Amino acid sequence: xxxxxxxxxxxxxxxxxxxxxxxxxxxxxxxxxxxxxxxxxxxxxxxxxxxxxxxxxxxxxxxxxxxxxxxxxxxxxxxxxxxxxxxxxxxxxxxxxxxxxxxxxxxxxxxxxxxxxxxxxxxxxxxxxxxxxxxxxxxxxxxxxxxxxxxxx
Length: 153
Prior knowledge:
- The protein has helices spanning 2-7, 9-16, 29-37, 46-56, 60-69, 100-108, 117-127, 131-141; strands at 43-45, 73-75, 114-116, 144-146.
- By secondary structure, it is mainly alpha-helical.
- Strands 1-2 form a two-stranded parallel sheet. It has a two-stranded parallel ribbon with strand order 3-4.
């Protein structure tokens, strides 16, 4: 349904801010309408985006494409990297100490100083700790978190 992207051309350019919708993405108007119903004030929380991916039976990356298409900004990153209001945009911070098992788990999934968002979620689940705690460990260890599952970073 390339016509939807073409129809929304100016909106897409404004929403993407240097991001590109892949050529093979074919947005569905009915899903776009359902997506918009879950958005409040042009923003969508990360946890809600995951819920929508499950509800719509879509990969997270496609939810990110719909967000870009509809000029929706993701907020309240579950790792704590962005979207927490004007005074405190991030929750992650360097800590004085990181538990040895967490250091080991993070380093095991890190390549060239980078760990992916999905790996942070996996570590959080396997160690039964919050995603923000894993984000804090990465911040403390100087490890960059990349490849948001929605394409936000």
